[in-house]
């Protein structure tokens, strides 16, 4: 219902307008009456009507003065002025100044009905536009959140240049992160089985408005908080405070906290330290705040440094080179054995360290190790390790799953590339410029990769397949036309008719002339 206020110093006129027209049937509701301009302004202040019908002749403040006040104070208010004949020209000027319309006394109800219908349509359009604008604002805000989240995920994993990082941080008013920071990595478990506990935790954190902090979700599993500025020195206090907030809301949380780091490189280092601290919960227990120093104290039992080529290992895992992965695992086990550390806790921590790093290869697909194999299965498996043989079995089982995951992704990607390449070749095989290079460029693939997956999926090399299509097309033309050999050669993509004849005999077993005679 559109809310209506009637303003007139004569009671009878207000009654005639209020009772003489079926307002509710037309989508309006009379919410009040006023006998003067001042009374009307007070009413508008508290009730905010959308349509005001006012007489032009009133003592102290006439209808035009009232309209001026209304338009200066409120937006989207519609005013209709009621006037006698002698003020007709005056009323016309009022319309030019913004008054919606005017009615002559005595008020014609049919005319009032027409004006009401026009105003109702106008207000309806205004409301629809407001809803569209609000929806657009919400969408823009949601898109902005997604972009920021994606940026911070790449930033902490050091998958972004310093120049781009600085520009984005200044754009998001987060440049303090480049000075000094402390990182909190938070793993949340909901005791009420909430399907999205991390989002609930994020809402709680932002409700409490802890100053000089930057928070975002990392691959839908961990919540990351960076303390910057003066809050850096209070990082542990903030972690403890937030842990209490989560506990009060029945959210079990383990928080890993880094040391204080500086500069662009310090951002990634702080994140890595916080993740290491979080991984120590396997040994130290969950639902608490664990510092990077706590993590180091557990690792101090290792007298020697384990040498391991992490980049090569992760590359082999991501690209499905299983033989190298197994070699790396054996080297890793040997390194643990050579350290001469006999404590089971150290063995479990080292197993968790390699497993966590292997799990990081899933992040680019928006997945995590916990999502792939199940959080409980992962931690139960770690807790069950009692020996190096247990460690080897655990790592081989889970690395197999990760290898299968990557191989599955690559198979899907390979199938897609081959499908696109086949489609392109089938449409363009008669083009003499068609080659492996042009096909790869058109399906946005690397030449060697396309060549390899094409042969695997089709059973022929890409060039062999193109030749097969061209010979098949030439046979069709030989059977259905009287074209000369050189004409057919040109039509199926050969620049040289002699070369075409050689290829034809090689694939069909007879010369073009012999085929035509048959």
TrEMBL record:
PROSITE patterns: HTH_ARAC_FAMILY_2 (PS01124), RESPONSE_REGULATORY (PS50110). Keywords: Cytoplasm, DNA-binding, Phosphoprotein, Transcription, Transcription regulation, Two-component regulatory system. Residues 419-518 form the HTH araC/xylS-type domain. The modification 4-aspartylphosphate is found at residue 55. InterPro entries: CheY-like_superfamily, Homeodomain-like_sf, HptR, HTH_AraC, Sig_transdc_resp-reg_receiver. Its main location: cytoplasm. It is found in: Cytoplasm. Gene3D superfamilies: 3.40.50.2300, Homeodomain-like. The keyword S-adenosyl-L-methionine does not apply. Residues 3-120 form the Response regulatory domain. SMART domains: HTH_ARAC (SM00342), REC (SM00448). The keyword NAD does not apply. May play the central regulatory role in sporulation. It may be an element of the effector pathway responsible for the activation of sporulation genes in response to nutritional stress. Spo0A may act in concert with spo0H (a sigma factor) to control the expression of some genes that are critical to the sporulation process. This is Stage 0 sporulation protein A homolog.
